[in-house]
Known about the structure:
Blueprint: H1 2-19, H2 25-42, E1 49-55, H3 61-69, E2 87-91, H4 96-105, E3 109-113, E4 119-123, H5 134-141, E5 147-152, H6 160-167, E6 177-181, H7 189-205, E7 213-215, H8 228-264, H9 274-294, H10 296-314, H11 316-326, H12 329-333, H13 339-347, H14 356-374, H15 376-385, H16 390-405, H17 416-441, H18 453-536
Parallel strand pairs: 1-4, 1-5, 2-3, 5-6, 6-7
Antiparallel strand pairs: 2-4
Helix pairs in contact: 1-2, 1-8, 1-18, 2-8, 8-18, 9-10, 9-14, 9-18, 10-11, 10-13, 10-18, 14-15, 16-18, 17-18
Amino acid sequence: MAVDLERALDALDLAVARAATFVDPATIEPYARTAAWARRRLGFLGETVVVALAGGTGVGKSSLLNAIAGEQVAAVGTMRPTTSAPLAWIPATPEPGLVRLLDELGVERRVGHVLDSELAILDLPDFDSLETDHRARVEALLPRVDAIVWVVDPEKYNDRMLHEGYLRPLASYQDQFLFVLNQVDRLNSDDVSAVLGDFAGSLRADGIDQPQVVAVAAAPPAGLPLGVEVLLGHLADRFRAKQTAIGKLLADIRQVGRELAEVTGVRPGVGVGFDDRWANARTDATRVLADLVAGPETAQAAERAGLMTARRHASGPVGMAVAAARRSPVARAVGVEQESRIVDEHARHWAERPGFEAAVGTLSSAVADLSFAAGGAFGADIRRSFAGDRLEREVRGSVEAALAAEPPAIVPGPRRWWTTVSIAQWVLALVVLGSVVWGWARPDLLQRGAWPWPIIVGLAAAVTSLGLARLAAWSGRRAGLSSVLDYRTRFAAALGDAIDRRLGRELRSRFRERAELGGALAELAIETEQARTRREGP
Length: 538
C-alpha cells in the first residue's frame, strides 16, 4: 500500500504543478499545501510505526530501548555519552521505505527483532553532546517518523537547550511528540507528581498545548522496569493512529484529485482532439490567406508576366524590340509595368483584399471551441491568453514572415522551344521583308491575271508569324500560371509553419500540459483506488 500511496503522491504532485500553470495561485495553494502535507506525513515509510528516542546525556535512552525490547539492544554504561552513533531497533524484515530512511540518515547500526509488531525505534545520540548536527538530524527525521519520544530525567527536564533549541522551535510538530520522564525511581510519589506538573507547564510554555508525559523507570536498581507498559500503550495508539492517518490521507488525496478536476475542468482520460481541430483550422485559414497572396489577381499578374517573357524570347524582332523598350530606364522611370515586379506588387497588396477577417475568424473559432471543450479554469485561461487583437496581430505577422521566407518574385523562365520559335520569327520577318522587296522589284507579278507570289508568300509568312506569336503567348501565360501555382504551394507551406510557430506551438504546449494533468489525475485515481482496495478489500 505504501508503494501505491507514493505513486499517488507523485501523480498528485504532477497534477498540482500542471494546474498551477493556468489556475490562479490562490486557488491552487490549498491543494499544493495538502499535497505537501501528505508527502511529509507519509515520508518514506509504509505501515511500520517508527519512533525516535531523543534526549540529553545520561537520561537513559538506551536503557529505555532495552526495556521496550525486553533485552539488551543498546549498550549502557557509566561513561557519558554512551550512544555515540544512532542505533535502529527494527523488524527483522524491514519495509524498503524504512531501509531507505535509515540509509539517508546514515544509521548503520541496526538490530532486528522478530516480535509480532511493526515497530521500529531509533536511538539517537545525545543532543547536548559536542556534535553539532543533532538538531539537523532531528529536523530530517520529523517528516518521516510517527513519533519522537523526548526522554528526560528529574534533573534535566527543564534543560534550556532542550526547550529553547528543540521543543520551542519545533512546536508545530507537537502531534508527533511523546515525553518520557525517566528514572522516577529516584523520586518519591509526591516529587514525581510535582516534577510531572512542572514539566508539563514548561512544555505548554513552549507552545505544546496538550503534552503527553509518561513516567518510567527503565532500569531501576532492583526489580523490573516501571511504566514501560504505559509507554507501549501510547505506542500502540500510534499504530491505530497511523492506520487512521493513512486512511484519511488516502481520502484526502482522492478528494484533492476530484477538486482539481472540478477547478481546472480537466476530466481524467477525456481529451479535446486538439491536433485534429487545430490542423483543420490552420489548413482552412492558410487556404484563405494563400488566396489573398497568390489568388486569382496574382495569377492574372503572373500570366501577364509570362506573356511578356514569351514575347521577349519568342516574338521575333518586333516583339523583342517592344520588350526591350518596356525594360529600358526611360520606361521604368515613367512607371511602365515591369515583368519582374508584376507578381510581387500584386502579392504584397494582399491586405487590401477581402478575406483576412475570415481567416482570423476561423482560427479564433477554433481556439474558442477548444477552450470551451477543455472547460474550467484551463479553458478560461486559453480564452484570456488569446483575447483582444492578439490573433489578428499574430496572423498578420505570420503572412509577412511567410512572404519574407518565400518572396513572390515570380518570373517564369523561357521554354527551350521558344528559341526555335524566335529563330523562325526572324526568318519569317525576313521572308515578309523579302516579299515586299520582291513585289517592288517585279511589279509585273502583281498585274491582273498573274499569281501575286510576293503577296502570297508575304501573307503566308505573316500569318505563320502571327500563329507562332499566339502560340508563344499562350505558352507564356501557361508558364506564368504554373509558376504562381507552384509559388502558392510553397507560400502556403511557409505560412502554415509561421502560424504554427506564432500560435500553434503555444497552444499545443498548453494542451499538452492539460493532457499531462489529465493523465496525472487518471493515474491518481488508479493508484488511490488500488491503495483503497488493498487496505479495505474488494
